[in-house]
Design a protein that fits this description.
The chain is of the alpha/beta class. It has six helices and seven strands.
Length: about 160
């Protein structure tokens, strides 16, 4: 049985909602195991055990969150050259445009020689004031639908051997 690993970090709930939606979409593929881990709890062994990945992070100061960076720092070299060619997708919960955070994940994935199955999914909350940035987020149903679709696409591709 193939497996999908979804690693996320969320401080105000937006990225967590996106991760839950993607996991729900992936879970529609019953011949696939879906494992969802908060970034501090994810290890190199989890990456090695999975056949594909979804990385979900908020945009913090125009970058990936510190705990996602920590996850990548802790796991990068222990899995290098062992996960080449595996498929992945990225989701960013952004306050502005999210492009730099997406580029950071893409550069890491390039080093791991992963294959993107879709462009980074960026959901912009337009949170620009201190109050708006710190406020709990509520992701809209249309955006959550895109997250579900991304999870389902990666899961189905894994199950069918397309990815």
């Amino acid at each position: 049985m193939k497996s999908l690993l979804l690693v996320y970090h969320s401080m105000t709930g937006g990225t967590f909602q996106m991760a839950q939606a993607a996991a729900a979409g992936a879970a529609s593929e019953t011949s696939l195991r879906v494992k969802v881990l908060h970034a501090p709890d994810a290890a190199a062994s989890d990456l090695l055990a999975a056949d594909g990945y979804i990385f979900a992070t908020p945009e913090n100061l125009a970058a990936i969150s510190g705990l996602m960076k920590d996850f990548f720092d802790r796991t990068y070299y222990p899995v290098l050259e062992q996960i080449d060619g595996r498929p992945y997708a990225t989701m960013i919960c952004a306050g502005s445009d999210g492009q730099n955070a997406a580029r950071q994940v893409e550069r890491i994935a390039t080093g791991w020689r992963l294959k993107a199955i879709a462009p980074s999914l960026i959901v912009c909350t337009h949170a620009q004031t201190t109050e708006a940035i710190l406020r709990p987020k509520q992701i809209g149903s249309a955006d959550l639908g895109l997250c579900r679709e991304l999870g389902a696409t990666l899961a189905t591709g894994l199950a069918l051997g397309i990815f």
